[in-house]
Amino acid sequence: MGRAFVYVILGGGVAAGYAALEFVRRGISNGKLCIISEESVAPYERPALSKGFLLPEDPARLPSFHTCVGVNEERLTPEWYREHGIELVLGTKVKSADVRRKTLLTATGETISYKILIIATGARPLKLEEFGVMGSDAENICYLRNLADASRLVDVMRSCTEGNAVVVGGGYIGMECTAALVKNRIKVTWVFPGKHCMERVFTPKIAAFYEEYYKKMGVHFIKGTVVTSFENDSGGKVTAVILKDGRRLPADMAVVGIGIRANSSLFEGQLKMEKGGIKVNGRMQTSNSSVFAVGDVAAFPIKLFGNDVRRLEHVDSARKTARHAVAAIMAPCKTGDLDYLPFFYSRVFTLSWQFYGDNVGEVVHFGDFSTGGFGAYWIDKGRMMGAFLESGSKEEYEAIAKAVKLKATVKDMAKLEGEGLEFAFKVSEQTMPESLEWLTTYGWHASAGVAVALSIAAFAYWCERWREV
């Protein structure tokens, strides 16, 4: 027994919601699309879990953060899916997939077939048990990836007010959960193996600013070591965290964020893999022409990086790759390769930062690190490859994004440091690139044919710029 659909989205996270909205906007017929999710709720904005759901006052709750409110689009409630004839198969685990036969087998024994499959299975958090950490199965050791994790974390926090928490891991989850714990009046010790927090994005100077801010909020840092075991009481709750350097930290709870792994195991041996995920082309199409992959599970070529294949673990990538995949499915002749600008952001306490591009090359810091109005540029071979800004305005973030997108030329690093944001605004206000400006300035003395060629080149340039916008 089974059901058949034209399109099936496997996974019910952020990407599934944005793909569904794109399908509807492109005129999909009722009954053609199915979304299969292990979660019991319709797709929602995962960033809300760490940024709003954990707050002690006026916390975010469904249905307020169903997709696609993260970019001020429609809120796709369960009723919305019913109204548009989209089948939500919730609380359902798929135990096997056969891409040759175009079928999925659920844990209940049902076979669901498709003509086109979009894999949006996301990623799972790495668990300390996988590294042999003794006692890491305690009931008050929390992870954060989905709504169930967030609900459990809230319950544990409520029982630990004024208590001690140990946060393990120096990345996104560590940074945002530490802030949430502090707001819930819990004393936090933040432990990670690196020299500073957010090593994948922050420079030491940037990290120092945030760490100093967190210290003023009462957070204690322990760097350069890892957790080796937990001490648990007879009720199965953690009471202390033991570190590799021998320190023992009393704890009423712990939060762990040590990385994630793409959920790609169903397709091992059936689809090509790369960078820990499912390899796709610029149209998000896998090695099987009937299967697409989006979001955290997809490894796709980045034009900005010379088509180097990357797997980007962030909500912005999930949203945009999902929409692009649907565009490629519904309008293949009108859809080219995705030209994606890598984008990461976070909000903690009263702080808010955005990062665009890649943190490769020489770093130039600018602004006032004492007040929080600061940023950084990454310059490689005379070109801007990345940009970071704390506490920027909408216009300022747009300016640094455009400077990275255009790989702005940088000739004087000292001047760049002095100009700071002014440099990005100058780039964004340019009417044409240097090469075209030179040609149009001096080329009119050439033949009429050259002048026509210059006009065509200028027109093509602006068509491309408008397409990017």
UniProtKB/TrEMBL annotation:
InterPro entries: FAD-oxidoreductase/Apoptosis, FAD/NAD-bd_sf, FAD/NAD-binding_dom, FAD/NAD-linked_Rdtase_dimer_sf, MDHAR3-like_C. The chain crosses the membrane at residues 442-463. Residues 7-321 form the FAD/NAD(P)-binding domain. One of its GO terms (molecular function) is monodehydroascorbate reductase (NADH) activity. One of its GO terms (cellular component) is cytoplasm. It comes from the Eukaryota. It is an enzyme of class 1 (oxidoreductase). Residues 341-424 form the Monodehydroascorbate reductase 3-like C-terminal domain. Its EC number is 1.6.5.4. It catalyses: 2 monodehydro-L-ascorbate radical + NADH + H(+) = 2 L-ascorbate + NAD(+). Keywords: FAD, Flavoprotein, Membrane, NAD, Oxidoreductase, Redox-active center, Transmembrane, Transmembrane helix. Gene3D superfamilies: 3.30.390.30, FAD/NAD(P)-binding domain (3.50.50.60). Its cofactor is FAD. Belongs to the FAD-dependent oxidoreductase family. This is monodehydroascorbate reductase (NADH). It comes from Elaeis guineensis var. tenera. The lineage of its organism: Eukaryota, Viridiplantae, Streptophyta, Embryophyta, Tracheophyta. The gene is LOC105056270.
